[in-house]
Design brief:
The complex is a heterodimer. By secondary structure, chain A is an alpha+beta fold. Helix content of chain A is 29%, strand content 9%. Chain A contains 6 helices and 3 strands; from the N terminus they run H-H-E-E-H-E-H-H-H. Chain A has helices spanning 33-37, 61-64, 109-123, 142-149, 152-159, 162-173, and strands spanning 86-89, 94-99, 129-134. The longest helix of chain A is centred in the middle third of the chain and has 15 residues, at 109-123. The radius of gyration of chain A is 16 Å and the shape is globular. Chain B is mostly beta strands. Chain B has a 4-stranded antiparallel sheet with strand order 1-28-27-26, with no helix packed on it. Chain B is globular and about 55 Å long. The two termini of chain B are 24 Å apart. The chains are: A alpha+beta, B mainly beta. Chains A and B meet through helix 5 of A and loops of B. Chain A: Belongs to the MIP18 family.
Chain lengths: 180, 348
Amino acid sequence: MTLGMINAHPVVHAKKERVARSEDLHSDDALDALDVFDILPPVASSICFLLDLSTELLEFDSVRDIKDPEHPYSLEQLSVLSEESIAVDEKLGRIKITFTPTVKHCSMATVIGLCLRVKLIQSFPPHFKVDINVSPGSLADEEAVNKLLNDKERVCAALENPSLRQLVDECLYSNELYSL
Amino acid sequence: MELLDGELELREIQKLEGHTDRVWSLAWNPTGTGVAGMLASCSGDKTVRIWQKGPSGSWDCSAVLEDTHTRTVRSCAWSPSGKLLATASFDGTTAIWERVGGEFECVATLEGHENEVKSVSWNASGSLLATCARDKTVWIWEAQPGNEFECVSVLQGHTQDVKMVQWHPFLDVLVSVGYDNSVKVWTEDGDDDWHCVQTLGEAGSGHTSTVWALSFNSAGDRMVTCSDDLTLKIWDTSQNPSETSGDGSGSWSHLCTLSGYHDRTIFSVHWSRDGLIASGAADDAIRLFTESKDRMVDQPSYKMLVKREKAHDMDVNSVQWNLKEPKLLASASDDGTIKIWELSEVSK
């Protein structure tokens, strides 16, 4: 893509320190948000899901290191994606992600959303259903972006486009250099 | 019409495996061979598979149509004679395959759409083919001798990606549905002059999100549409006989909306010869609806007859009733499989 930089001066936030995974993962109680941040995707504020800790779910780490298409910092560092924005219902096999693009008119929002979708497809069992939305009020044409990101046929067709696929792959796989 | 008494269920007859990616669409051959016919399926693996019931009674893959499309094959449709199969692909082309014995040969490639072709449909006589694409257009092609196809019209009107086109069961009336939430009816004025005679649902009774599919009943006086807005809508053209100009294009009106039955996108809907409406949705379930015989209500209404949860492990993309055996249903899924079902009474 030959677009100019849309967000030339992003605000960068310090990365949250990763807590080493605790061995004691068999609690049946509702979990403290901080504890689960590094173990499993946390719950949305108003809904509480019971999570089965004995299953091998890939966690929030798998998405927060995705590189923003325009900058070398990860999505978490740019506050595009924060803890509150992921909800996983393991029993139903549903994931709901809400992300905040860095600028209101971000045309990269659809690419970021695509990256999130691809990463989640790669990280979770295939029967999981993923809904991806931009957080309300974060984007001028958020309805249009949400509709596109959740149209399975449009997503499939987009990912068959070699240059778009290449961009998505670059965002997903070049995060190792910047995860310090 | 043969009616079954008692509680009904969809009994799984067989699971057809072979595709290596999601299966998007199915089409039963209208003539076919054997008792129940021939089924075509198309997939994200860029191939089309033909399935037939073998001597043992089980369905086997009798042909794989490959090395033609370079991207997902999204939709397929048999000509009324059953001799030709049209396949629509994300590669922007529509291929025409001719059946010669058990083999299939690609005899034509229709080009012209600017991007992914989403759907293809033959008219009742097999003289016309319609295709639609993400380029927001609907193309009408005329079948000519020697497997030649000529584009006779490019229909503009949709403001977004067109998801499906379907010809009326016996009139040269075309309906298209799409991402712009609309349902459009197209007819010809004579001399290849096609235009949109009606856009359904503009007055508030229409869908509020992408319309994915439509299906006519066998009488051709009703159609059902399904949408991302989680509803099915039934439309009717027999209420104002004075307004119909005899070509079926006049005054389709909203009859009823089936809401509250689905909680995820409905990708496919198909109306059987016996009047049963099957739906396939993103919650992995298949549902059957029928007209309610409730005499208390003046307006025709529809009710859910069967709900088959976990019909597949993933989204159901297509449901198609067999054209000769009306109790046989085929379904296709993101899980890469196709299932054959039989509507039967629940054994007590």
